[in-house]
Amino acid sequence: MTDFINAHCHLLTFKFVPDSFFKSRAPIREWLLRRYLTSFAARIATVVLPGNNYDRSHQVLWLLRQNIDRVAEAFVAEMRESGIILATPLMMDFEFAYSKQKSDIDYENQVEKISQACLKYPGELMPFIMFDPRRPGAIALTVNALENLGFLGVKLYPSLGYHPDPDNPYNSKEVNKALNDLYDYCEAENIPITVHCSKGGAYNKAILQSEELCHPANWEPVLKKHPELRLNLAHFGSDEALLDHENALSWANQILKLMKNFANVYADTSYHTKALEKKTKEQYFKVLAELMEDETVAERIIFGTDWLMTRHTWTEGDFCRACDKLSESSRQQIAFNNPLRFLFAEGKLPERIKKFYQANQIKPENLPMWLSVFLA
Ligand SMILES: [Zn+2]
Q1: Separation of 54 CA from ligand 1 center, angstroms?
Q2: 222-236 burial string, b = 16+ CB within 10 Å, else e?
Q3: 42: CA distance to ligand 1 center in Å?
Q4: What percent of the chain has pLDDT over 70?
Q5: Where are the alpha helices (DSSP H) in the chain?
Q6: How many angstroms is it from 271 CA to the middle of ligand 1?
Q7: Which tens digit of pLDDT belongs to each residue from 77-126?
Q8: What is the whole-number distance in angstroms between the Cα of residue 352 and the centre of ligand 1?
Q9: Least enclosed by CB within 10 Å: which of 81, 121, 146, 275?
Q10: Which GO molecular function, any one, fits this protein according to its record (predicted)?
Q11: How far is the CA of 242 from the centre of ligand 1 (A)?
């Protein structure tokens, strides 16, 4: 059996996101009837649509009402059942996307809570902190999380309202400086960055064509300036884009070009529900198998699911079992070798993570066995 590393998932509760996303205190029916500000929220809303895996939908709603430790516990239970030995939950910082709308638990506090929740599963949950260059003090908050709070990497979400290129006039001077500082730091310290890269997900609707801010081509100038950056273009542009990768306009086509030109560019398969749907799964895995025939690409595709966003219909087990359609060697690459290479530069558990565990009385023997086998 293949061991899986899930490089794209989220630990969330209603209190972690602004009210515009989830109306935690409104009755569900009322909540459903609201006009959703984002397709991201609409995606979660499918949670309560009748007739579609009703039980799973209710499990998600129940989970979103628990505290974050309970969500982490449920996630880890599901991971263990499905053969996922490591997952990297990606944080979300919405405070600058929706003006004046804050989550019940402010972001700094969320960072602490995620750090503590993941600390209960050392070597099994290693979170990514989200960096929003518009947040005052974002660099200090991010560096502290990476160096002292057990965070393995950084999550970016440009479609919430900024351009990822620090030389782009779209951004203010302050935003560009923050981005430059982040890329310098991450490149020097070999820190993995996962950036949202599909037309779905959360968008700042106040900004015209905000999805263009997520366009993979925006990364070319960034990578030219920071060629060693470890970058995962999340969702591979989307499953639809992947199936259409031969089309030059497909975001997946652009991502494949970046992979060819830059050594540390990856793409994850999160929210690729076409891998699970009866009508599309044959075609999906046929295309994926074809892509895996290319030597470069074969080392850059990484497994991710997008839990809890996907949990209304699909479990972690569903995503893992779907990969049975891959050849054994491709599955091993996507599920394990590639995410391991993306997450751990030079095959090492970063010193900063070791120090964090040490400071919290976690001894090397408390870590999963496989870590010491695969990571120096
Ligand atoms: Zn996601």
Answers
A1: 22
A2: bbeebeebbbbbbbb
A3: 14
A4: 87
A5: 28-33, 39-45, 54-64, 68-82, 107-119, 138-148, 173-189, 219-225, 239-243, 251-261, 281-291, 316-322, 328-332, 338-343, 351-359, 369-374
A6: 7
A7: 999 999 999 999 999 998 887 666 788 899 999 999 999 999 999 999 99
A8: 25
A9: 81
A10: carboxy-lyase activity
A11: 17
What is the distance in A from the centroid of ligand 1 to the CA of 30?
26
Instruction: Place 32 in a pLDDT band, splitting at 50, 70 and 90.
Output: very low
What is the CB-side half-sphere exposure of residue 183 using CA atoms within 13 A? 21
CA of 302 to the centre of ligand 1 (A): 14
Query: What are the residue ranges spanned by the domains of the chain?
Result: 4-374
Q: Distance from the CA of 75 to the center of ligand 1, in angstroms?
A: 15
Q: Which among 302, 300, 230, 314 is positioned nearest to 268, based on CA atoms?
A: 302
In residues, how long is the chain? 376
Question: Distance (Å, rounded) from C-alpha 293 to C-alpha 300?
Answer: 12
Average pLDDT over residues 264-282: 96
CATH of 4-374, one of 3.20.20.140, 3.20.20.10, 2.60.40.1500, 3.40.50.720: 3.20.20.140
Distance 157 CA to ligand 1 centre (A): 10
Mean residue pLDDT across the chain: 89
CA of 198 from ligand 1 middle (Å) equals: 10
254, 216 in Cβ contact below 8 A? yes
- What distance, in Å, lies between the first and last C-alpha atoms of the chain? 24
Alpha carbons 319 and 311: distance in angstroms, whole number: 10
Paired tokens of 37: 């500000």
